[in-house]
Amino acid sequence: MDLNYTDEELAFRDEVRAFFEEKLKPELAEKVRLGTGLSKEDMEGWHATLNAQGWLVPNWTKEFGGAEWNAVQRHIFDEESARYDAPRTVPFGFSMLAPVLHKFGSKEQNDYWLPRMLNGDDWWCQGYSEPGAGSDLASLKTKAVREGDHYIVNGQKTWTTLGQHANMIFCLVRTDSTVKNQEGISFLLIDMDTPGVEVRPIILLDGTHEVNEVWFTDVKVPVANLVGEENKGWTYAKYLLTHERTNIAGVGYSQAGIATVKRIAKAEMAGGKPLMQNPLFAARVAQVEVDLMAMATTNLRIISKAAEGAAPGVEASMLKVKGTIIRQEINDLARRAVGVYAMPFASEMVEGTNEPLPDPHDAGPLAAHYFNNRKLSIFGGSNEIQRGIIAKVTMGG
Amino acid sequence: MNFELTEERQMLQDTLRRFLKDRYTTEVRNKILDSDVGMSADIWNELAELGVIGALFTEDQGGFGGMGFDIAVVFEELGRAGVVEPFLDGALLCGRILAHAGQADKVEAIIGGTLQLALAHGEPTSRYDLNYVQTTAKGNVINGRKAVVMNAEAVDTLIVSARTSGGAADEDGITLFAVDKDAKGLMIQGYALLSGGRAAEVTLDNVEGTMIGEEGKGFALLETAYAAATVAQCAETLGAMHTATNLTKEYLMTRKQFGRPIGTFQALAHRMADLLIEMEQATSAVTRAAGFLEEDARTRDMNIHAAKNLMGRAGRLVSEEAIQMHGGIAMTQEYELAHIAKRITMADHRFGDTDHHLEKFIALSAA
What we know:
- The structure holds two protein chains of two kinds.
- Chain A is of the alpha+beta class.
- Chain A folds into three domains: about 5-90, no CATH class; about 120-230, Butyryl-CoA Dehydrogenase, subunit A, domain 2 (Beta Barrel), CATH 2.40.110; about 245-395, Butyryl-CoA Dehydrogenase, subunit A, domain 3 (Up-down Bundle).
- Helices cover about 45% and strands about 15% of the residues of chain A.
- Chain A has helices at about 5-25, 25-35, 40-55, 70-85, 90-105, 105-120, 235-245, 250-265, 280-305, 315-335, 345-350, 365-370, 385-395; strands at about 125, 145, 150-155, 170-175, 185-190, 195-200, 210-220, 225, 270, 275.
- Chain A has a four-stranded mixed beta sheet with strand order 1-4-5-8. In chain A, strands 2-3-7-6 form a four-stranded antiparallel beta sheet, with no helix packed on it.
- In chain A, β6 (about 195-200) and β7 form a beta hairpin.
- Chain A is globular, with a radius of gyration of 22 Å.
- In chain A, about 45% of the residues are buried.
- Chain B is of the alpha+beta class.
- Helices cover about 50% and strands about 15% of the residues of chain B.
- Chain B contains eleven helices and ten strands.
- The longest helix of chain B is centred in the middle third of the chain and has 37 residues, at about 220-255.
- Chains A and B meet through β9, α9, α10, α12 and α13 of A and β6, β9, α9, α10 and α11 of B.
């Protein structure tokens, strides 16, 4: 056993660092650091920068322009991204849809959609959840009925992240209502400019607009946009959900978060001394740091296994639960640290207008992030669902 | 012992609950939250007419209550409805200071609903320490900066604390001044608050004020007013926690996934049970803090520190678990719980957080 990176891995890390230092604009990093919200142009610009480097899609094969990084390389990249306050890529196309197309799509679909993704021609969003189908995703009701060369789609999706920017949505739709829930689902690619598609914003509790409802009324979708076989969509959806597993623990985010908490707590005064010297607060920070150190290693242990080709099992669910608990705890520490300055509503900051806050620590909208990140334990399979998976896999039933 | 409300307090509670249920709906409140002033003058006046302010003052002061239990009844109801109008700061906190400083005419105006004040006391580096004042006054000329002053833009007069003698952390030497909102050298930079209402940064550059109470004796006025305000804050949070748990209970019984109400899954049912246990703890903590408000300072403070510490912990648990058990719907601004959860969490940033009150409690309990 050796807890250090190999020389090769270290060299890769240096390469990543050099890239961030050269190509990441300070203004963009500042927006990420303060959490002031990125515009569509910011995100597309960063995608283009990564694409020029050949690093936009580390998980793809080289044939389609991917980097073919192994799990440890991807972990190093994620860790350094957080350290440099680099934006994250928008995952819906690159990390979620692409692997499904790769494994189950037709050659025509791969040849057409993958290059467009790389070029930034399409912005993909995900049409999974519905008002009545959250944790119980397989009970989804959005219906697609075949009529000649088209499907006619009717229904509603919700929690569609960044759907306001998207022109394409991949959807789970019901194509057979006579069989078991999981057996009547198909995987469709839908052009959002088609008549009958309507996107309605959902404003979250921190004032941000990042999710949407997407409504379908008699939307005509060419049969050529069916991925794989009709009624096999659930298999593809499960593949998608289990495929993208690196960074599920958010170690980099948490490390950056702890650094922010310490920076603030060294500046914030409590009883005439820096807050960081307050024993109660210091204990809170230390407790999370201890947990984070262990989880970072859990993450690496699991990643090394994956790098050797082992399929991630319940460990992914474990990392999701522990990772989100730690991230949320850090968000809680950050809002505690700023004291009364947690109270100002930083919606202007969140929306990206750079309105300065009164907060003397330049801490950004920390309390808003605390509330926004309550989503971490809800989305992507809630922590209750993850615990259910862990229990089921390890104890049967 | 008797844990029943008196007939008068019971009536007040019933009246407020009915009024707020009819009048202060989620839609009405969301409009208020979206408005530039962040509060409704109509709501303020109507609640003042129903006795919300009068209940906070004794008969001698021109009110009809003024005890800890009166404060608790009023603010629990305001908390249940997520009321953002600043009764706590504008009426209770400032009114108590003026009442104890012998300014009876001003207190009458507050009770009548015609006078609102703002207290400019905390500073950017004072965090939750009541004694920490770096703003200075020479004679009646004040210089300094005040942090997150509730409701500062909406009032005609601010109560400003300033140091007239002693070091930054001394209790002695803090003097209170009334400062006219249009006073020369006074700058008010306002902003909206995450949980509703507005506050401001207040900068004083050679601003003239009028002394309130005795010179150098402002701490005692602040301390008693803060004691009452902290009880009010705890009661308000308790009310909000009742709403959060009620919404969650209802949701668990009606939301179906996997063909059954999600409350029938033991994983969630047990967590709901834990919340209900904490609600009983919270109710008792607030009852104690309210009931001992008129006792000697040590008994009063022990119970207030205990309550604010417990409310910080229980409040966090309730708001986070309520959101988690709801799922995505609770993350949306238009759903009632979103606002209520923010009220609960932001309450931990007022009048000292969980850790602040634990330290204060330790200091008394270990002595």
